[in-house]
Amino acid sequence: MVGQQAGQLAGQPILILREGSQRTRGREAQSMNIMAAKAVAEAVRTTLGPKGMDKMLVDSMGDVVITNDGATILKEMDIEHPAAKMMVEVAKTQDDEVGDGTTTAVVLAGELLKKAEALLDQDIHPTVIASGYRHASTKAREILSEMVGNVAPEDEELLKKMAMTAMIGKGAEAVGDKLAELSVKAVKAVVQEDGSVDVDDIKVEKKVGGNIGDSELIEGMIIDKERVRSDMPKKVENAKITLIDSALEIEKTEVDAKIEITSPEQMQAFLAEEERMLKSMVDAIKGSGANVVFCQKGIDDLAQHYLAKAGIFAARRVKESDMKKLAKATGAKIVSNVQEIGKDDMGHAGLVEERTIGDDEMTFVEKCKNPKAVSIILRGGTEHVVDEVERAMHDALCVVGVAVEDGTFVVGGGAAEMELASKLRKYAATVGGREQLAIEAFTDALEVISRTLAESAGLDQIDTLVELRAEHEKGNKYAGLNVHTGKVADMQKIGVIEPARIKTQAIGSAAEAAIMILRIDDVIAGGKLKEGMGAGGPPGGMPGGMGY
Per the confidence metrics, is the pTM higher than 0.85? Predict the structure, then answer.
């Protein structure tokens, strides 16, 4: 379509869009957007649950990522379609807010749109469907709040079960117990006085070599730097640590200056003064009693020599984020002026040591008294294994952090969604009118989680759904699918539990995204959009020709 005819003036068409623009309206625009969003949901659906499959993503440079983490898959996929990008936003929000449940949120949004499509075919207006979905989402979160159990930071077993639920299916099952324990200990170490948890205070360092079981928690920090000179001590016990964010070098003047030297004596005096300035910096560090220095910027060769002579361990060009974590772990204050280092600025650690991990030298700052920042070192046989274990650990840390902050949990294994569906079905009957159909569609969409878990485990989806519905009708609100046995089981008893925020956030953001996509009835594109959906899309391209 070259332009859009807005009217006729003396037989002359009026074009309001630039030549080459494209416009799709009404039912066609809705179908196009729904199809794109469903394609994204379908791309990640099979990764859901403990028996979910992995995806191999190869970028234009040939780099390979193997994962079943929904957020990672959508981040790596090169998505162009505007409606499909909205689904990626759902995953991003879920990942930022909770750290886990990204696949659930996207699959749910895709299923809500699929059910909405059937209602649109029955000539039910999109605003009626949107209103029904909004009501259902609000009611679902209300019902969820009545289903939660309580968890305290002291309930280590419950927190470990949550960490295990988050990690299972991500290649770390063999040593899941150990990794779950590491994540719980790490989160408990960094809980703030107000009960909040910042997962960024936990540094996860990954190194290829050894196996996953060799991963460990360091009560302090691991810095991916070595000491600046080999004649410095490799190991410092009872370390007094100074953190400096300025360079231990002679700084250039702010203005351009020229020094004229006319004799060798002047040259010697100039060099001697530089040397004296560097020595005074090192003397100030030495005088403060520090025996370990972490510098955010460079350290002059001569300063390195004086530091080594004084028996001080020094590392340079330490990242700013690591400096902040070191301050939290050791109790040190970051100083800018070396001459003003006081005893109060000093941090303490039982041990600072340089160790070889894999092919790299790393500095371990351990045995900190009450560290508010800790480190986990992850090991694995290959780079892809270590990367996936890191993603699993990220999910576990986020989940435990959210559980400690909120103090609430719900059961997993599709049990929470089935219980919600059971209660919402009864609620829908009280609403009446066309909106009831939208609430029932929302209810059916919630069952996609159990259906997908059954499909991934190689079970019959219909039989599983019928059995689960029957159990929930009997009042067994914890009945979910045990994918390992293929039987319906009490999820709380077998320890499949998740923070309540995972479900509330997933349902809320999935409903909002579905409503937003449904309400679009006109797509105006400034230029010609690509034909078809491209690789990975449904066969035969897509109406309207928008690709991803």
Answer: no
Choose the catalytic residue: 24, 47, 72, 102: 102
**Residues 253-267: b if buried by 16+ CB within 10 A, e if exposed:** eeeeeeeeeeeeeee
Helix or strand run (H / E) with residue 458: none
d(CA 329, CA 367): 10
* Annotated active-site residue in 72, 395, 443, 444: 395
Verify that 268 and 319 share a domain, yes or no: yes
Query: Does some domain include residue 403?
Result: no
Residue 426 lies in a domain: yes
Out of 103, 104, 242, 363, the active site residue is: 103
Based on the fold, state whether residues 363 and 460 are members of the same structural domain. Answer: no
Domain that holds residue 91: 5-149+412-545
* Mean pLDDT per 10-residue interval, the chain, length 548 residues: 46 65 77 87 86 84 82 83 86 86 90 91 90 92 88 86 82 74 88 82 85 83 88 88 85 68 75 78 85 88 87 90 89 86 85 84 86 86 84 88 89 90 89 88 92 88 90 89 87 88 91 89 68 39 37
Q: Is 72 a catalytic residue?
A: no
Catalytic residue status for 69: yes
Tokens of 139: 């009611």
Closest C-alpha to 528, from 13, 19, 4, 10: 19
* Number of domains making up the chain: 2
